[in-house]
Amino acid sequence: MNRARMTQMTGKYMNHDMISLHTDLPELPEGRISLLYAVLGQQPDAAPQKELLTLVTSLVQMGLDTHDMVENAPQGASAAKSGLLAMRAQQLKVLAGDYFSSRFYHLLSQAGQIDTVRRLSEAICDINRLKVSLYGKMTQMKLNAEEYLHFGAELKSGLFLAFTGFMSGLYERAWPELVERFSRCEVLLQEMRKVEKMSSLDESWGMWHILQEGTEEDRRMLFERRDDPNLIKTLMHKYDIAEKLGSLLRQSTGQLQVLLQRLQSDKLLRELQPLIEPFLQAAGQQRATALKELG
């Protein structure tokens, strides 16, 4: 599914003046949606409903991602400073997330897809439990870099795993690993973009890697001066954060390509290749940059 068709499908449910004027929304999960659409198209029983199923999944994922953008309300003087507009933006994020999520019930019930409502509802509950677990580990500082990636991939793939029961044969066996590996590549690509900004190490793979592998002095400085851009740049270079992320992305992308080959469908491979290109390009650019710095 191309971007134009995806935008056309979701636009009538997501384009609201009040929301667009007063708050930001997360990006549509185009990669995972296109992956689901393409694989559902290979399933004889699910293919006739593939547009409806990908539409409702888009809306639910947007609802979850919009809620994730809601920040804790500031207290005291900072609360007054943030002003009415900031508070309204936060409130609209909550309302927008609720609205997007609610639309899937309506659309699926109209189509008589009650079992799909159950599957997605259970997936939402699992995702929320996973978020609580991740938050607990993060606040207690009991998380390592690999667990951070694993949680990220699980959160992105959770809704899409609900469609395993729609697959048959080889696809049923391959789908869970396929969507998890694709989601892991998405997480790694996001982390590489964070490195490019170099604005903060908070809530990043780089932070957990340094806390896991760094010296006691570097860990202490990371806690005390986490908003210092010079320190951030120094630590990122010292621990080769960009290079390590690039290596992990190359590894995961290679594993993803192997999985796709197992599906033994040239048509599906051609359809999915554009979804993998951003991962290949980012990993390749990082390697070229690293070689240039060495040379």
Automatic annotation (TrEMBL):
Q: Name one GO biological process term.
A: menaquinone biosynthetic process
* Protein name according to UniProt: Heptaprenyl diphosphate synthase
- Tell me which species this is from: Cohnella endophytica
| UniProt lineage | Bacteria, Bacillati, Bacillota, Bacilli, Bacillales
